[in-house]
Amino acid sequence: MNSLDFSIVVQAWPYLWSGLLFSLSLTAAAFLVGMFLGTLFALVQHFELRILSQLVRSYVALMRSIPLILVLFWFFFLVPIVLGHLSGNGRPVPVGATYTAFITFGLFEAAYYSEIIRVGLRAVNKGQFEACQALALSTFDTYRHVVLPQVFRVASPIILSQTIILFQDTSLVYVLSLTDLLGAASKLAQLNGRLVEMYLAVAVVYLMIGCAASQFVASLRRKYAIAGARR
Amino acid sequence: MFTVLLEKTVDGQRYIDWLVSGLGWTLALAFFGWWIAFAIGVVVGIGRTVQNPFLRALARLYVEIFRNIPVLVQMFLWYFVLPELLPTTMGDWIKQIPPPWGTFLPALWCLGLYTAARIAEQVRAGIEALPRGQDEAAAALGLSGYLAYRHIILPQALRLIVPSLTSEVMGIYKNTSVALTIGVMELTAQARQISDATFQTFAAFGAATLIYLALALIAYQTMMLIDKAVRIPGTAPGREAGGSDFDAVKLESPVPNGMEVVK
Q1: Which residue range is the domain that position A53 belongs to?
Q2: B69, B205, B263 member nearest A74 (Cβ)
Q3: How many domains, chain A?
Q4: What is the mean pLDDT of each run of 10 residues along chain B (263 residues)?
Q5: Which terminus of chain A is more exposed, N or C, with fewer CB under 10 A?
């Protein structure tokens, strides 16, 4: 057993920090895209739009059934081809691993968020819809101002737990050789051979962020429930 | 599209044999990992609910550590870091475990301990969902803590959480793919190897995707059957007409806040 030397981690900190920033921005982007698409997907299923809702259901079931790593490989392969077709000349467009990761996580997370929102939509009291009708709100206004705000509020602890898992899952971009927090540590570890210190440091950083975030979610769960609503 | 899978590889097998061997490792990891996870998860989950504050804190520590570090990082900790931290002779012995097992065992152990933390939370939720009266009745009958858990609390709590455990089963078989990062040649790794060797990426990944889908269906149906077989008579049944709606069961499980989603 060699003696551990954590000063190496301090030296490496700027690089690790830039990796962490990448992990966080990937999380944030996937959260925004995932929530937007996820809400759309959930609404499509909620309104039972004919063919579209079948498509969305299959998409969600598929994404939830295969490992994220396989999805990353799929997108790494497919995105250039699809973009090539979209741009018209049919030739694959090289987009690089970074964009692939952003696209993949956004589309992948949409499947998970849409399930949460779909269940949330089912939980909204029927009286709310009837009240909106009585107020002559249009369908759009009903969902925009009455239904969706309640869904987001009730589901917020679950949405946030899902986002914590998303943050942890961004470490899987390692398989695309990207420089996220883990990727940065692993690249340095291969250079300086101090992989024990590097991986332990990364584990501690993830642990601290994860614990802080889940504490926050737990306090939210207690405080933020709609008064009087059964949860 | 899949005919390429029947072609011969450089080592004289067919590509489909690679996939089958990958599937074997995936199943082995998921199956044995599940039992490790279940055993530890039940113990830790009980630990979360006992009176003793020291045991409770210990169980909480376990859950926080194993749930908040990404499974990929844990994989690296078990595979790269652990042998270095152990005494030299022991570390060297671990590093010399012959090829398939040298990576398989750390991966198995890692998946088991990671999933155990998640199962522990489900077990705790199940125990806490029971009416206090069950505890009190057990105490009134003069049952010791051990006997109360063994005969009153666990039999009910475990049956209650079968629907929520479905998502953990789905979680562990999907997480087996993380083992490819330390070199276990499981299904996803084999699919990529075939794609690299033949450039038939559609066929390779498509076949793997279909296999994972089949596994998901089997896992889901099995858990539904188990739930049906062990459900406590008189408790609300999960929605059975859910169709391909994988999570209807989990999301409507009788356990409050059991709605966490797993990948």
Answers
A1: 7-223
A2: B205
A3: 1
A4: 78 86 95 96 95 95 95 95 89 85 93 96 94 91 91 92 91 94 93 89 92 93 92 65 38 42 43
A5: C
